[in-house]
Protein 1
Amino acid sequence: MTTTEKLVPLDQQEAEEPFDASQDLILNMGPQHPSTHGVLRLVMRLRGERVVKCTPVIGYLHRGIEKIFESRTYMGGIRYCDQFEYISNMLNEHAYVGAAEALLGVEVPRRAEYIRVIVDELSRCSAHLVGVGTYVLDLGAWTPVTYCFRERERILDLFEALGGSRFNHNYFRVGGVLFDLPTGWLGTLEKFLGDFGKLLDELEELVSGNEIFRARTVGVGVIPQDVAVAYSLSGPNIRGSGVPFDMRTYRPYGAYPELDVQPQVRYGGDCFSRYEVRLYEMREAIRLCRLAMANLPGGPIQARVPHAVRPPKGEAYFTVEGAKGDLSLYMVSDGLSQNPYRAKVRGPSFVNLQILPRLVKGCTMADVVAILGSIDIVLGEVDR
């Protein structure tokens, strides 16, 4: 398929293959199913073991996060960022405060920007550990998920020492971060990074060459480059198809322009390539954390921002490279209130999910589990 071809709408796909009561079966997968990674319902029309059509049904986890932002002050909305993509919380906070800072025209101190890079990359690792661990668990292996969650607990220990909370961090602030690095924290981080690199070697040896894992993922759920672009995919889902689209280099922000970010790209476009991108993004995160630690400047961690934030009238759109892809926040100020007049989250999980019906059509039921897990969605970000 080329970019000039017209994508076939789902209703036309249904019209091309009418329901055959003698052969077809309607099967609901979810909304409470372990392999949907949350409350997602997939209405599948099967012909034998083959999927004729798949329709994702969302909305079971609607949090109203955007209206919550509009009913809270600019500072008060930060703690709610931890609750829509609850696996990589710090990255959500960065997108939110970035939009508020763009409205205010605030320049964030360099030390705060470097600290943000460190916690962002740790948050990315935390999300990928959950994504890779549960993905391999979906395909029948138990041991890797125990390794992944063991290392994730160490990341949460670091976050707890940094800001006081393991899950709802509330660490970012408009104009900087809440606390400076505590005494001994960088030493603990360096020890973790050394151990984490060894864990990734062990994980790769355990999983990547496993013949069952490869049989379930290599050549399955292939997304060609042009289709990935046409569906507006981002994150590992587009980089696994050979497109080096990464917001840290495409639209650099924070301290990333001062660091040599190397987007991880694979060219197979299949489930295995998307898994490999996530695995090697964790290696890249280790390198970026060490670069940021080596070049960590002194100075303040917060800009001078009034406690009652009232940005001038205007609008701002700020994007970060989230663990799932392009995570953006659009914010409007009326120039009078301490609350955003309008806030809109662009969640990558919501956008990435739309390609699922195309990928699973013609596949077996077993492939549906492998393909959905390789997209790596979080339902709190889909429904928001």
Note: The mean pLDDT is 91.
Protein 2
Amino acid sequence: MTAHGKRALVSGGAGLIGSHVADLLRREGWRVRVLDNLEPQTHRKGKPPWVGNDIEFIEGDVVDRGTITAALANIDVVFHQAAYGGYMPEIAKYVRVNSFGTAQMLEIIREQNLPIKKIVVASSQAVYSEGAATCPEHGLVFPDVRPIEQLQLGDWSVHCPICQAVTTSAPTPERAPIGGETVYGLTKVDQEKLVLLWGKQIGIPTVALRYSCTYGPRQSIFNPYTGVIAIFCTRLLNDLPPVLYEDGEQTRDFSFVEDIARANLLAAESDKLDGLPVNVGSGEGASIRQVAEQISDALGIHITPEVNGEFRPGEMRHLTSDTERIRAAGYAPQVDLATGIRRYLDWIRQQADVRDYFSEAANILRSKGIVHRVKSRGERGG
């Protein structure tokens, strides 16, 4: 089937990634239906202006059986982007939206024998426990999550799981063990495993895209729990310092949202990635401190970042995606970090009410035990 006449459902299609996927599909001649519950934490002002009139829009929740059943009618390809994300304190909501919502959708497709031809599900680098690393003695290793006891001592390094030597970061391939060390990560493991397993069972091609840190225009300026680039921007624009956890030298692979949308289109139109988990990233790591400095320079607002000895248990130290699998299928990211940050800043400058929501959120995260502080020397018994 050619793109012309193909019908797509984009769940979470009003959000950062989903809306760019929907836009790209429309430009490529697809007919697009968007399902989104307009989560108030992200969409404080209701349906955003970028959901175009040429897109069929359903406001509703993926966990509502009637709503998702109606949304799936006469659809060829599902781009399942809807998820509850970030560092939030609600455990049950993650499981309900991400795990149960996905399971119910798959159940409905099978029960009603719907003619879905492919499902592309949004997974995440959060499925990994820690990024791959190189040990001086043992080569490429896959370390476990760093113990809280180690982090409480202010030791941020990643140790070899075999000999405990300090390692250096290496690109993480899809064969690295997955488990998820946050509730969000755990439910992303659920989502991708459910979709890939189900696809093999009933013979419908499925792809799980493990996104690296995604950013760009439309990233919510209201949600203080997701998107370090958005948080740093809103802090600086309110003359507040960016807050760095650990020492700020942890590294991430950043992907501009339009590149992520292109990866979704490729996964839908190619059979080279069928049945597989697939890393999507730039293949390059940038330190969080470096990102704060780049945003600072681009804004012309220079405020020294704040490092106050706090850390988030379960957070990986380094993660750069090994993108060999998706590149072999024809993917190449087109927007580098500096360009992407400039484009995001151009967008954020046009937004009203660029307030700092992070300070209040940080207090909630501390009270719920999601953010911890390094122990003082006295607390360590030394």
Note: The chain has one domain: 7-373.
